[in-house]
Amino acid sequence: MPTPTIEEYLETIYAMASDGKEVIGARLAEALDVSPPTVTATLQRMVRDGLISFGARKEITLTAQGQVAVESLLRRHRLSERLLVDMLGMNWHEVHDEACRLEHAISPQVEQRLVEKLGDPDTCPHGNPIPGKTVAEGYRRLVDVGVGENVVIRRIAQRAEAEPGLLRYLEEHGLKPGATVGVREVVPFNGPVVLSVREGTVPLGRDLAAMLWVEQAED
């Protein structure tokens, strides 16, 4: 079984790849807030253990073994988040850290019971797919949506889940999966994306808008 450190690396690599980013050592060091030599040593260990491989440009890819390991971890994590939100009534922005603790204690038997009690959900509360479930693909990032378009928020980038302040802001303004919003304005020179919502307008910085994945709203 991977150590907690290796699991954190696996999750970060998976999250970056899911958001369409090429995974390299420097980006991992920045995301995990560790030194490049530490990242290098850990990655070498992961190669030795058959969890990752390097491409021609030193990009990092999960092996089949690494994919199985991270999907098992994420499945328990995202089911834990659903348990905390759907059955225990915790706030959307509070559950990530609690789920990180729970995921290590869930046995296969408990996992199956969770699936049954939760109604076999497709996604976590943040819209990210539970491994093993088939969900729609082809979403766009909100930051790439043009002015005047109406879109439905479908998921929040996995890397945002560990930022409770950011999630609280989204929750307070109703910007959760399933919400329909309009892009009212994109302020030039790296200014905010201004959304039209029921209560009026909400500005989002470009970095935050890049963490929201959306699809076109039906007319």
Features:
single chain, 219 residues, alpha+beta, Arc Repressor Mutant, subunit A, Diphtheria Toxin Repressor, domain 2, SH3 type barrels, 8 strands
Strand content: 15-25%
Output the helix-strand order. HHHEEHHHEEHEEEHE
How many discrete structural domains?
Answer: 3
CATH class of the largest domain: Mainly Beta
How is the largest sheet built, in terms of strand order? 3-8-4-5-6-7
Count of β-strands: 8
What name does CATH use for the topology of the largest domain?
SH3 type barrels
Q: What's the CATH architecture of the largest domain?
A: Roll
| Multimerization status | single chain
What is the number of helical segments per DSSP (H or I, 4+ residues)? Answer: 8
The general outline is: globular
Q: What is the terminal separation in angstroms? A: 49 Å
Rg from Cα: 18 Å
Unreliable stretches: none
Return the average pLDDT rounded to an integer.
92
Which structural category do the helix and sheet elements fall into? Answer: alpha+beta
Helicity level: 40-55%
Sheet with most strands: 6 strands, antiparallel
CATH superfamily of the largest domain: Ferrous iron transport protein A (FeoA)
What would you note in describing this structure?
It is a single chain. The protein has 219 residues and is of the alpha+beta class. Helices cover 42% and strands 17% of the residues. The longest helix has 24 residues.
